[in-house]
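Design a sequence for this backbone.
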């Protein structure tokens, strides 16, 4: 029996971010370029490095735009994304994120997320705790473990390709667009996010174990920066699509 799935991102969405903690890893530009669809190119630094982000977000009142907040739901979300650029059909050079995988703490989000988006949601039981100025993230089913010291910031991780936080800041968002490329339909899905008061604060990563990076082929990825933003009203516009451009 054929199921008729709704169009991806068919309505706008509102949510509140209690916080978003993002770790950005650097890998050789060619390693990401070889994994991207032909319509995308890496958003590179010094034409040598490209980046994969692991973002952990605690959302509240996530709901279709126009619905009252009390009808929304609270989730923990983990997103794995490449930093990319895309030249649109109108000739605009768009900077954003390429969706690799999304994780959540609840089956409800897995079901609804995969019904209305192409963000590849998996329920992994991810849990986040914050105490004594430490943020701890763990998903026992996947082996994901991150611990961040929220009291310290400013210094870049050892081995980062960036020399100063000002350089890293460019790769700390907000990146307005996310892209999903559907090769079988030869189309590109584009969702624009709108947020205000985006003020990333650098933090120190005490430890991290992210098995999915190895699955992607980035076992040797270098931690380039880490930051937290708090108390952000977030809005995703209704998705749009356009034909996959010729190389």
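Sequence:
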């Amino acid at each position: 029996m054929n199921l008729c799935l709704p169009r991806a991102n068919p309505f706008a969405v509102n949510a509140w971010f209690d916080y978003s903690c993002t770790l950005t890893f650097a890998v050789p530009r060619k390693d990401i370029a070889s994994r991207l669809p032909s319509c995308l190119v890496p958003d590179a630094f010094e034409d040598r490095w490209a980046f994969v982000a692991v973002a952990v977000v605690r959302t509240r009142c996530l709901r279709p735009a126009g619905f009252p907040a009390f009808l929304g739901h609270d989730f923990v979300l983990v997103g794995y994304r490449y930093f990319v650029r895309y030249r649109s059909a109108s000739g605009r050079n768009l900077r954003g994120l390429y969706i690799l995988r999304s994780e959540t703490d609840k089956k409800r989000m897995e079901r609804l997320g995969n019904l209305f988006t192409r963000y590849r949601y998996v329920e992994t039981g991810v849990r986040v705790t914050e105490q004594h100025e430490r943020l701890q993230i763990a998903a026992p089913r996947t082996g994901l473990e991150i611990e961040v010291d929220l009291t310290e910031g400013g210094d870049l991780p050892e081995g980062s390709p960036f020399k100063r936080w000002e350089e890293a800041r460019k790769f700390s968002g907000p990146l307005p667009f996310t892209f999903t490329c559907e090769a079988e339909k030869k189309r590109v899905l584009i969702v624009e996010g709108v947020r205000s008061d985006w003020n990333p604060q650098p933090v120190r990563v005490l430890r991290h174990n992210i098995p999915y990076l190895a699955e992607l082929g980035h076992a040797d990825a270098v931690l380039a920066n880490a930051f937290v933003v708090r108390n952000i009203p977030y809005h995703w516009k209704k998705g749009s699509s356009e034909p996959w451009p010729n190389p």
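Residues 107-116 form the longest helix (10 residues).
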